[in-house]
Amino acid sequence: MNRKSLFITAAAIALSASVVSSAMAQRTVINTNQNNVARAIAETNAGITRTGSTVGGKVDATSAAIANTASVSVSRVATINNTQTNNQLVSATLNLGTATSAVNNVKDVTATAAAIANSASNTVRNTTVDATNINNYQAASGGVQSRLNSNINGVTGKVEQTSAAIGNTFTADITGPIGTINNTQRYWGDVSSQLNTRVENVSGDVVGTAAAICNTGTVTSSNAAAINANNNQACNIDPSATTNALIQNVGGKVNLTTAAIGNTYSLTTLPTATLNVSNLQQNGAINVATANLTLANVAGDVALTTAAIGNSFTITGGN
Q1: Three-class secondary structure of residue 141 per DSSP
Q2: Residue 293: beta bridge partners?
Q3: What phi and psi values does residue 5 have, to the nearest 5 degrees?
Q4: What share of the chain is helix, strand, coil (3-state, %, to 5)?
Q5: What distances in angstroms separate CA 40 from CA 68, 144, 318, one per listed residue?
Q6: Once rounded to an integer, what is the mean pLDDT over residues 64-88?
Q7: Cβ contact 283:263 at 8 Å
Q8: 3-state class (DSSP) for residue 275
């Protein structure tokens, strides 16, 4: 090898090392550790009246209590380690009322009462060939409860109401290669949700949801060729969801869902992705879903769902 070719070879090796080093330097490493030992309580009491002759605007009311929340969104390959623990009460209450007039009080109404012990959300947009890895651990032993009490009348649009109580929730939405995703969730507290509502004289659709969930995990991969995933969930004290509803004089559809769930996990991938998945779900709780409903004068379709589920595991795609 002459001096010129030796120089070119050395330069190529140096450039290659520089590229590899640069690619490795782009990895983001995030370690989060949250421990909540105090109660989280949110309560909203709102009465909405209309004094003018014109139709009121939209109503969006939210009461949310969260013990721990971690949200990660990165645009490069990442290693994310998340730990969250909570041992105290988490409670959200929303009391909402509109004017008693039968017409033209407000436009759309959106009402939400949400109580969550631990929440971890991860979004990774990786365009390199390196793999993203995520480790999630969540444990909660305090009670979690959501209450939505409403009296809604004279709406020119739609009505959407949600009362949600969740012990642990984990989501991962990943673009690019995936190494391993580990999810461990433990819940030992009462989780309960209630939707108590009276809805009258609505031009559009009426949607109501009461959901109580111990543990929920959702993983979405848009283009990974292979995925290793390990899920371990345990629920030990009873989830309960209740809907008490009087709904009448509705111009659109009515859709009411009441769900009490111990453990739920879903993985969505490419149809061609190679999967190595381990799932362990343990539910020792009594799941109770109760719906007491009275409906009258509904112009559209009516859909009523009441579900009590111990464990739910779903894979979409993969081979």
Answers
A1: coil
A2: 245
A3: -65, -35
A4: 5, 70, 25
A5: 10, 10, 40
A6: 97
A7: yes
A8: strand
Chain segment 262-277, per-residue pLDDT in tens: 999 999 999 999 999 9
pLDDT for 51: 61
Half-sphere exposure of 265 (CA within 13 A, CB side): 21
Element housing 199 (H / E): strand 191-202
Cα–Cα distance, 295 to 199 (Å, whole number): 10
Tell me the three state secondary structure of residue 129.
coil
The residues spanned by each domain of the chain are 29-316
Half-sphere exposure in the Cβ direction for 108 (13 Å, CA)? 7
What distances in angstroms separate CA 19 from CA 7, 15, 123, 128, 301, one per listed residue?
18, 6, 26, 12, 60
Query: Which region holds residue 123: left if phi is over 0, alpha if psi is between -120 and 50, else beta?
Result: beta
| Edge-to-edge order in the sheet of strand 226-235 | 28-36, 78-86, 132-140, 178-187, 226-235, 274-283
User: What number of helices (H) and strands (E) belong to the chain?
Assistant: 1, 18
The model carries a pTM of 0.90
**Which residue reads 């283009």 in tokens?**
223
Tokens of 8: 């070119």
> pLDDT tens across 196-210, in order?
999 999 999 999 999
Q: Tell me the one-letter amino acid at 141.
A: S
Q: What's the token pair of residue 117? A: 């012990």
Segment (H or E) for 15: helix 3-25
Least confident of 7-16, 24-33, 133-142: 7-16
Closest C-alpha to 241, from 271, 216, 272, 209: 209
Distances (CA, A) of 219 to 87, 222, 234, 259, 267: 26, 10, 18, 21, 5
Backbone angles phi, psi at 51, to 5 degrees: -105, -25
Side chain identity, residue 54: T
